[in-house]
Amino acid sequence: MNLPQKISDLKSYQKPHDSIFTTLITRHISKFFSFIFIRYWKNVTPNKVSALSLFTAIIACGLFLLPNYWYRLIGVVLLQIAFAFDCSDGEIARYKNMGSKFGAWFDSVSDRFKEILMFAALTYAWFARHPSNYVWLIGAATIVLWLLISYVREAKKSSWPIERKAEIYITKNIYIGTVDVTIFLVCAAILCKIELYVLALFLAVSLPLLFKQILSAWKLK
Q1: How many domains does the chain have?
Q2: CA 141, 144, 145 angle in degrees (round to 5)?
C-alpha cells in the first residue's frame, strides 16, 4: 500500500456527505490525524483509532468533573480531538480498505458510551456548583431517552438494512447530524457553565426525536 505523501491525499477518503460541524471544522483536523496515523503508526487499524477516540473522550469527561476551569477547558479540547479521531477511523478504513461490520458496530457502541459520559459529566458539573436533586433527574432522563433513541434507530437498521440518510439537509452535501451537534453543545455548556440548560435542551428534543424514529420505522413496514 502506498503511503500518503501529503495531508490533502486523504481528502478523497472522507465522506462526500457529512454533518455541518464535521464538514466545517472536524474533517480539517481528522485528515491531519489520519495522515499521521497512516504514515507513522505501524499496523494502525480503524478499530485501534476508535478505541483511542473512546479513551480520549473518557479523559475529557473526567476533566469536566474538576472545579478548575482550565482543566475543563483542556477537557473541551480533548473531546474535540476525540471526535476528530472518531472521524479518522473511517478515513483510515477507506484508505486501507479495512472496513468491517465489527468496526461499524464498535464505532456506534463507543459513540453511545461517549454520550452517557458527556451527559453524566454535565449533570455532575452543574450539581457541584448548584446542589439539587432535580439536576440528577434531568440528567438521568436525558441519558435514558437518548439511549432509547439509539436503540430504536439501531433496531430499525437491523430490521430494514438500508442506507441511513439524514433528513435535514442544509446544502446538497451538508446535513444536521446528531453526534457532532451533541459534542459541540456539550463543549459550549462546559465553556459557558450552562450545563443544566443544555441538558434540558437535550431532554426537550429527545421525545420528538424518539417519535421520529418510531414513525420512520412504521412507514417502512
Answers
A1: 1
A2: 85
